[in-house]
Amino acid sequence: MATKGKGGKKAVVRAGNASASKKTAATKVEPAKGKLGVMVVGLGAVATTMIAGVEAIRRGLASPVGSLTQMGTIRLGKRTDNKSPLIKDFVPLADLKDIVFTGWDIFEDNVYEAAAHAAVLKPELLKKLKPALQKIKPMPAVFDQYYVKRLHGTHVKKGKNKRDLAEQLRADIRAFKKKVDRVVMIWAASTEIFLEPKPVHRSIEAFEKGLVDNDRAIAPSQIYAYAALKEGVPFANGAPNLTVDLPVMIELSKKNAAPICGKDFKTGQTFMKTVLAPAFKARMLGVNGWFSTNILGNRDGEVLDEPQSFKTKEESKLGSLEYIFQPEIYPELYKDIYHKIRINYYPPRGDEKEAWDNIDIFGWLGYPMQLKVNFLCRDSILAAPIALDLVLFLDLAKRTPKLRSIGIQEWLSFYLKSPQSAPGLYPEHDLFIQSMKLKNTLRHIMGADLVTHLGLDYYD
Ligand SMILES: NC(=O)c1ccc[n+]([C@@H]2O[C@H](COP(=O)([O-])OP(=O)(O)OC[C@H]3O[C@@H](n4cnc5c(N)ncnc54)[C@H](O)[C@@H]3O)[C@@H](O)[C@H]2O)c1
What we know:
The protein is of the alpha/beta class. It has 17 helices and 11 strands. The strands form 2 sheets. Strands 3-2-1-4-5-6-11 form a 7-stranded mixed beta sheet, with helices on both faces. The protein has a 4-stranded mixed beta sheet with strand order 8-7-9-10. Helix 3 crosses helix 6, helix 8 crosses helix 9 and helix 12 packs parallel to helix 14. It is globular.
């Protein structure tokens, strides 16, 4: 049975129409008027590939392949209605031409120099974009080598304590807000060492005291997130760090109507895992072992070569199978999976990562089989459209009365290796459930019928 949204089907047609009823007006998504400011923490490979990509797309030099917000459609009504508008025509998203980028980095390179250093995009393309890219110069970062051992930052803020650093970031945000109409922040900086939640993360008061006391449990990523959420700015985390998955951040997010979501861009191997694992489970095929290994040679690979940063990444990558297979419900099929993940820094490959998976599965009567996946991917080419979509959807969430004050935007799990969900609720890792959740959330906020795929009404 299709569930009716509050405004019913007609609201879809009338979305944005001044004659809509008062009730619809109160829940209506605000239009994306003016400039959207995007503050990027870390102007490295992913960030510069996103920024240069947006610039190239704006000029008609390239196509936004991999971006659901730019290329995806959404079915409305029945299959027989033949109504599948582009997502960006259905929900009011910021137009790419209205995006203004800024950011922070621990190095002074402007975006053109950083993109050239990352060597993801071809020099011919970068040269065409040079005048625009070199105008984007990073602000000094909040950084402490204790949290990213392999990097030595030179372009770094100084402050008497972490509270002072947070205030400097808040001043950066407020200054940027004067130039644009809305702001979103995204962490595309290096992976920090593995940290666990501590009492200092339990409440806003405890965290603010921890900032003054320079508590070791507060990493730079948390200081950026705190600054963003205090300023009412939505925050996305592209890395696996412990950042917004903390009670203090959830509290701040709700209090200041600053949406947050999970963490760690779901790009290569985990993307494949969250496609294949649900397929095995749907067919009740068992799995004994899943060995995943990677070689990559970019700066991210260098940072992840350090055991404490690798541990953060490993934890994020490990979670997906456990949740998808539900071994507690299917012990015979999934109780004893041996799941191993390796990331090897191998400089000759640069950003062109290679991932191998060996999956030991078993079928009818327990007979064993194997599946091998060899994914020759480009890390930042996969991550850039995800970063862009997260930014655009978080901005949408901020303009949506039904979403902006709920804190965690579970519907954005689709993009993330470690989805975040309400406390006590297990996260959904299955890519297709995530995709359905995302699209139904868009239908819901626009007052359209949800699509459940039941389809019995075609046979009435
Ligand atoms: N590319 C992918 O497919 C992918 C997938 C999932 C997650 N990630 C994560 O995204 C992040 C970025 O990846 P990348 O390949 O662009 O890495 P990168 O090393 O090229 O870029 C990271 C940038 O962050 C800067 N930085 C580090 N600490 C900072 C701080 N405290 N403040 C400001 N800047 C800081 C570094 O100087 C660097 O320029 C990494 O954490 C990575 O693990 C990437």
